[in-house]
Q: What sequence folds into this?
């Protein structure tokens, strides 16, 4: 089976794959002497091609892999990056090391292997270099900034490359599709704050965790509107004592599948009831 995993040139120093072939989007940034990969896709094979493509295109080695958050479609392809420095927020590492996540992901990994060659050979690899609020990687005159915000998950972080005004948002943004906002560690307030922070940074390009790239800070408006509208729906439902099954979702991103919808409603209900 031949697997293709091409990288799209976003700017002279950044590339990404947003086709969904590796499930979660991934990409990279070339500084002067080395590259930084961002997320590893869900498969070892696509992770491997991602790394090869980065090193071939820019002709410098990958020195760091930044993991934006712990979800399988962003971390299961880490294996080909075993020899480079894998980094994430401290909370992402903590979530990955807890026994509940480990046992849940063992089942996930077994199920993936049944999908055939693409799902084989996964190793559960936890980042080793951890940051709390912010980390800068500097190389000569170029640098990236990584911000831990929480939101989509408690460990969620995004990467900014100010030189070309590009932000890799991880799953803080799902473009043109109903977002997954039902993770047990999802914090709706932090998610809204993270989106507002990225909008304030006024990037030219935002690369989401899923879906095509977004252009300009204004493209984040409907994402922020969606979250605020959903928050209002949930708070009204709590005030009116509605049951989860009688609660709707904003229609900005269409109707999600029942599972994703129920997870979002139940999680946000619990969050705002206990707030
Ligand atoms: Zn995710």
A:
């Amino acid at each position: 089976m031949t697997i293709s995993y091409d990288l799209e040139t976003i700017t002279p120093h950044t590339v990404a794959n947003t086709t969904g072939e590796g499930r979660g989007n991934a990409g990279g940034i070339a500084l002067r002497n080395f590259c930084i990969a961002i997320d590893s896709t869900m498969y070892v094979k696509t992770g491997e091609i991602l790394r090869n493509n980065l090193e071939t295109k820019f002709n410098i080695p990958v020195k760091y892999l930044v993991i934006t958050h712990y979800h399988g479609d962003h971390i299961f392809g880490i294996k080909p990056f075993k020899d480079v420095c894998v980094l994430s927020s401290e909370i992402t590492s903590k979530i990955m090391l807890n026994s509940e996540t480990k046992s849940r992901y063992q089942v996930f990994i077994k199920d993936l292997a049944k999908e055939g060659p693409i799902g084989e050979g996964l190793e559960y690899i936890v980042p080793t270099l951890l940051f709390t609020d912010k980390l800068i990687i500097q190389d000569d005159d170029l640098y990236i900034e990584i911000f831990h915000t929480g939101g989509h998950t408690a460990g969620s972080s995004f990467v900014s490359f100010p030189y070309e005004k590009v932000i890799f948002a991880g799953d803080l943004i799902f473009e043109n599709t109903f977002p997954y906002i039902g993770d047990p560690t999802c914090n709706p307030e932090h998610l809204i704050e993270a989106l507002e922070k990225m909008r304030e940074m006024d990037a030219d390009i935002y690369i989401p965790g899923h879906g095509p790239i977004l252009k300009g800070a204004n493209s984040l408006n409907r994402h922020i509107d969606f979250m605020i509208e959903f928050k209002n729906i949930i708070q009204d439902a709590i005030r009116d004592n509605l049951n989860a099954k009688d609660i709707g979702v904003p229609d900005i991103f269409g109707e999600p599948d029942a599972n994703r919808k129920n997870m979002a409603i139940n999680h946000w209900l619990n969050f705002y009831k206990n707030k």
